Amino acid sequence: MTLFTQVIATSIGEIFLTASNNALYALEFDDIKRRQLHCASLQKVFGCTFEQGINPIITQTTNELHEYLSGGRTTFSVPVKMVGTDFQKKVWSALSAIPYGVTISYEELSQQIGNPLAIRAVGTANGKNKIAIIIPCHRVVNKSGGLGGYGGGLHRKEYLLKLENASFGSTTNQDTLF
């Protein structure tokens, strides 16, 4: 199997995409170390090769992402391929059900998946999400309303939540983001 990769410029920085001709495998903020780890993981699981280029899934993802970031889209229709453990996939599926503009706590997320004591495990699975924004891990915040963590950087999480007009605790200014 060949997976196509592409780095695209967006209003919140460069984003790295990985896709087959059928589904999106990754949408990550472009960090060379994370990109290499992700590609190595996919190669181990699927024995795939990588080719820089554009295919219909990358084109669709790029278009939908730009529409979202400009305020013109609240949901995504691009097909995704979740690669992880059963537990991680359960968490990521629950993340996908969080509506645009809504935030929940890690504790609420652990309750939603039927494992109320797995708050830390839910946080870890949330952090291993490889399809940022589309699987909206940015919509999970601390119980106190604080931002919590975010693999793409807290400044991006805050930006995305402000874009969605979500309620959360904050101390920085979106206007100084980029």
Describe the structure in your own words:
The structure is a single chain. The chain is α/β, with parallel strands linked by helices. The chain has two domains: 2-69, Double Stranded RNA Binding Domain, CATH 3.30.160; 86-169, Winged helix-like DNA-binding domain superfamily/Winged helix DNA-binding domain (Arc Repressor Mutant, subunit A), CATH 1.10.10.10. It is built from six helices and six strands; from the N terminus they run E-E-E-H-E-H-H-E-H-H-E-H. The strands form two sheets. Strands 3-2-1-4 form a four-stranded mixed β-sheet, sandwiched between helices. The chain has a two-stranded parallel ribbon with strand order 5-6. A hairpin with a 4-residue loop joins strand 2 (13-19) and strand 3 (24-29). Helix 4 (106-112) packs across helix 5. The longest helix is centred in the first third of the chain and has 15 residues, at 32-46. It is globular and about 45 Å long. Residues 170-178 have low confidence and may be disordered.
